[in-house]
Amino acid sequence: MVKVIASSVRKGNVLEVDGHLCSVLSAESFFPGKGTPTTQIDMRRIADGVKVTQRYKTTEQVERAYVEDRDFTYLYQDGEQYVFMNPETYDQLPVDGDVVGDLAAYLQEGMKVTLSVFDDRAVAIELPQRVTLEVVETEPVTKGQTASSSYKPAILSNGVRSAVPPHIGVGTRIVVMTADGSYVERAKD
């Protein structure tokens, strides 16, 4: 176990809290004008899946568990589990749907991901920052509309809703951030 300050904790880290391993779902720091800055950490206990929220002073020490980050390739979904393969040993590792969470929409066959492994169990997943998807539904292109900051709603090939610039039409491949599904650029392929 390694001690780190609470403000350095990020989504996907694994902490030891009261003797339980917890996967961090979100970590947010608050800096009020008056008073002590705090960090609120939402976690899921790995053993039983119970969600826990803790608030720490930003400089307070927390125990970060040693997990091994390994590269895996996504293969397929099998019911509630997602199956990944170690590209070096070809061993397959099933991962529960609650570990993958909302990121499941961005998984693509053959995608390289990083799994945090503890006792031969995946406890957290990290996807590439950006993925390329196709726009399957959006409003038609309006002639004469400038590429200003007015974005229009779109539904992508993975079912996620996003906002795209006015010049993007149905069938266009775009690059989006996996963290929040936001538009980055038109795909260059």
From TrEMBL:
Compartments in which it is found: Cytoplasm
GO MF: translation elongation factor activity
Spans traversing the lipid bilayer: none
Pfam families: EFP, EFP_N, Elong-fact-P_C
SMART domains: EFP, Elong-fact-P_C
InterPro entries: Elong-fact-P_C (IPR015365), NA-bd_OB-fold (IPR012340), Rib_uL2_dom2 (IPR014722), Transl_elong_fac_P/YeiP (IPR020599), Transl_elong_KOW-like (IPR013185), Transl_elong_P/YeiP_cen (IPR001059), Transl_elongation_fac_P (IPR011768), Translation_prot_SH3-like_sf (IPR008991)
Pathway: Protein biosynthesis; polypeptide chain elongation
Elongation factor P C-terminal domain sequence ranges: 131-186
Listed HAMAP family: EF_P
Family: Belongs to the elongation factor P family.
Protein task: Involved in peptide bond synthesis. Stimulates efficient translation and peptide-bond synthesis on native or reconstituted 70S ribosomes in vitro. Probably functions indirectly by altering the affinity of the ribosome for aminoacyl-tRNA, thus increasing their reactivity as acceptors for peptidyl transferase.
Stated name of the protein: Elongation factor P
Lineage summary: Bacteria, Pseudomonadati, Pseudomonadota, Alphaproteobacteria, Hyphomicrobiales
